[in-house]
Amino acid sequence: MNIRNALIAAGSALALSTLATAAFASGSISTTAPASVTVLSPTTITKTQDLVFGQVVRPSNASSNTVVLDANNTISLTGAGNGSMVASTNSSAKFNVAAPAGTTYSTTQGLTFTQTGLTNIAASTPTTTNGTPGVIPVSGIQEIRYGGQFDMTSSTPAQNYTGTLSVTVNYN
To answer: Which of 6-20, 26-40, 151-165 is most confident?
Structure first.
C-alpha cells in the first residue's frame, strides 16, 4: 500500500470516529406510554324506610318492659312488666348503600329520642338482604336494615316519642 492510500485511510478513520463521538455527546430521544383512569361514583347512603315502633301500652305494675323491633319488622315485648302491644304499623329502618362492587364498609349507628322517659335506648346491629354484610355486591347496592329497642316503666310519660336513627358508613 502506498503512503497516499494509508493517509487517506487514516483520515477517513479519524473522521468517522469524530462523527461517532459527536453522536454520543449530545441530542435527545423520546417515547410514549399509554395512560388510563377509571372514574367511579362516590359511596352514598339513602334512607328508604323509617324506623317505626308503632304503639305500646306502658306497664301499670312496678316492673319494666323492653320493646324490641328487629331488623325484619318483628316487634316483641319482654320483661316482668304488664305492658302490652297495640295492633299498629311498625317497620324497621332501611337504607341503601351504593358503591362500586367489592367496596368494603362498616357502620356505626345510634338511636335517640327527643323526649325523656324511655331508657336503655339502642339501635340494633344492621342486617343485609343481599350479599355479605359490609361488602357491596355486584349490583353496586346493598340494603341494610336496622331495628332498635328501649325500656319503659309505669312512670314512662304517655306521649308521642320522636327521635333519630343516625347511621354512618365508613368505607375503604
So the answer is: 151-165
